[in-house]
Amino acid sequence: MSPPVLALSNLSAISDRDRAPILRNVSLEVARGETCGLVGESGAGKSTIAKAILGILPRTIRVTGGEVKFEGADLLKIEIGPLRRLIGECIALIPQDPMTALNPARRIEAQLTDGPRLWRGLDATAARALALRLLDEVHIRDPDRVLRSFPHELSGGMRQRVLIAAAFALEPRLIVADEPTTALDVTVQKQILRLIRNMQSAHGTSVVFVTHDLGVVAQICDHVTLLFAGRVIEAGSASRLLDRPAHPYTRALLEACPRYDRPDAGLRPIPESVIADLYAELGQSGATP
Amino acid sequence: MSDDLLIARDVEVAFGAGTSLFGLAKSRVKVLHRVTIRIGRGETVGIVGESGSGKTTLGRALLRLIDVASGTIQFDGVDITRLPEAAMRPIRRRMQLIFQDPMASLNPRHTIRRIVLEPMRFHRVAASEADAEERARKIFARFNLPSACLERYPHELSGGQRQRVGIARVALLAPDFVLADEIVSGLDVSTQAQVLNLLKELSRGLGLSMAFISHDLSVIRAVCDRVYVLRSGRIVEEGFCDHVFAAPRDGYTRALLDAIPLPRIDPDWLGRTSGVEAVGEKYTK
User: Fold this and answer.
1) Fewer CB within 10 Å, N- or C-terminus of chain B?
2) To which H or E segment does residue A15 belong?
């Protein structure tokens, strides 16, 4: 078994303002070519973990312990210069909202060729050829026109395809996908999920997939880490966690999901006792840094 | 008197105003094409569609918030299609709207007290100021909102609390019809379940009629009796939820259902493309 591409161990962080814990001893591993789901409701800490991996934690969040190891190197200990190079070349992001991720004033060509020119030293012609190939790979039928377009001229699904192309441009070893389909219609979501899956297996990339949607998890993730209030509640293979959830919170969360195949689902809020137990556990575990 | 509280017949809505700068006729874009829907007394009806399908426009037309190009809207036996605003006013109390984003619909500079009491004052539903306050406290207790919330500002509440305030504000006016436009799409599933429960209880308790607009068929399934499926401004399917979800007749409805990922392992789901591509491509053009 090869070593994990990404390994978080006992990562803890607090808010600088009120010293409230944001992450509590979070550990997880992502193997090569695997998709690992990071799931939880708002405030669970899933985006904070994504930011920690990408080296873009806001100043208001302070890491108090633990490691974020990418291929053996602790990202938290590397100097900013080499860190930027490492993350720039090896880790990519597929963001949630393509409209804010793309610069509205620059054409797609400029935005797609930035990375390859900066990190791979390609000249304009080679970078353009690469961009065309990537757009073709994400099933954009008219890549020449799209390269000349500004972001607002493309539909939401198209923009997300462009960002997926950009994410794979440097053949990253790890991709962090932060709710990449939340803003899309379901039919487009399905296409984008399939695209991410196909690109990932073609390129052998590992993916950290942040989502609040257990349905998406079921269809795209190999492993799942479920978080609550900055703490790992349950982790395991997607099939095990969804079919045989061990923790009461996992079960309650599954019960709360509305689903069209079950008329009675979606009307069972998470019992207050389950939440109370969770907070009691948090207090006792002494995880508060 | 019919069992239907609200009936919209052959409603068409077009956007893009009359003439251009040089007096040339400008083409108007039709966003609803002969849409007919009815909402029975005490019934909750779902309106589902993807972005751009016209579901929000339809909701606004039902409430007379926008004018229709043709067709009629009848509320409790009265044709309100061209009713003057003064005559609309008493009807306005009876048809209320719960918004998608409570942060955008609750005035950030007003306390929750003012936000819930002002509409009651405007529509004169309470006998006195004290009576209004009393009613607000009662409904807050029922909605599991601490009465201390009354002194707070919207930003001090959680998302779920804000959405409950939005619903409480509407419930206090004792309307006959409520339009809920994507009211749970920004919420976590646990909060979503609370809000959906509340809504269901409200429609049962007050005998409310409700139009529930959503892009999410699973949510529709949880709260609605009947559903209308809207695509590009046309109704492509309608029927009781039990029938539509068990055996959708229209290809588009089927494609929408197929595209929803369910929280169970289904190794073939991603690969299945039954009709979904054809539908999706329209939107990614």
Assistant:
1) N
2) strand A6-15
> For residue A102, which phi and psi values (nearest 5 degrees)?
-95, 140
In the three-class reduction of DSSP (H, G, I as helix; E, B as strand; rest coil), residue A289 is classed as coil
**Average pLDDT of the residues of chain B:** 89
Tokens of A10: 């006992």
**How far apart are alpha carbons B275 and B257 in whole angstroms?**
11
- The segments of chain A whose pLDDT lies below 70 read 1, 266, 284-289
The 8-class DSSP code of residue A271 comes to: P
Check whether B45 has a pLDDT greater than 60.
yes
- Which pair of structure tokens corresponds to residue B269? 């789901």
Please state, in angstroms and rounded to a whole number, the distance separating the CA atoms of residues A1 and B48: 48
A177: Cβ contacts below 8 Å, ≥ 6 apart: A93, A94, A196, A207, A208, A209, A210
Please provide residue B166's backbone torsions phi and psi, each rounded to the nearest 5 degrees.
-60, -40
- Residue at A266: amino acid letter: G
Using an 8 Å CB-CB cutoff, list chain A residues near B271.
194
Residue A173, classed as helix, strand or coil, is coil
pLDDT at residue A281, as a whole number = 85
List the structure tokens of B194.
Answer: 């609370």
Helix (H), strand (E), coil (C) string for B136-180: HHHHHHHCCCCHHHHHCCHHHCCHHHHHHHHHHHHHCCCCCEEEE
Tokens 């904070």 belong to: A48
| DSSP code, position A18 | T
Over 70: is that where the pLDDT of B2 sits? no
Residues with Cβ within 8 Å of residue B90, at least 6 apart in sequence? none
Residues 204-263 of B with CB under 8 A from A: 215-223, 241-242, 245, 255-263
| Nearby residues of A121 by Cβ (< 8 Å), 6 or more positions away | none
Residue A23, φ and ψ in degrees, nearest 5: -125, 140
A:B CB pairs within 8 Å: 149
The gap from C-alpha B31 to its chain's centroid, in whole angstroms, comes to 18
Restricting to B residues 149-178, those with a Cβ less than 8 Å away from any Cβ of A are 159
Residue B167 in contact with residue B145, Cβ under 8 Å? no
Backbone φ and ψ for B87, nearest 5 degrees, come out as -75, -25
Cα-based torsion angle of the residue sequence B192, B165, B7, B121 in order, rounded to the nearest 10 degrees: 180
Other beta carbons less than 10 A from residue A148's beta carbon? 12
Q: Amino acid identity, residue B199?
A: L
DSSP character at residue B63: T
Residues in chain B with CB shorter than 8 Å from the CB of A35 are none
Alpha helices in chain B (DSSP H): 55-62, 85-94, 102-105, 112-123, 129-142, 159-171, 189-206, 217-223, 241-246, 251-258, 276-284
Helix (H) or strand (E) holding B98: strand B95-98
In angstroms, rounded to a whole number, what is the distance separating the alpha carbons of residues B257 and B245? 8
Q: Tell me which chain A residue has its CA closest to the CA of residue B51.
A: A185
Is residue A36 within 8 Å of A245, Cβ to Cβ?
no
Return all residues near A99 (Cβ < 8 A) that are at least 6 apart.
Answer: A151, A152, A156, A159
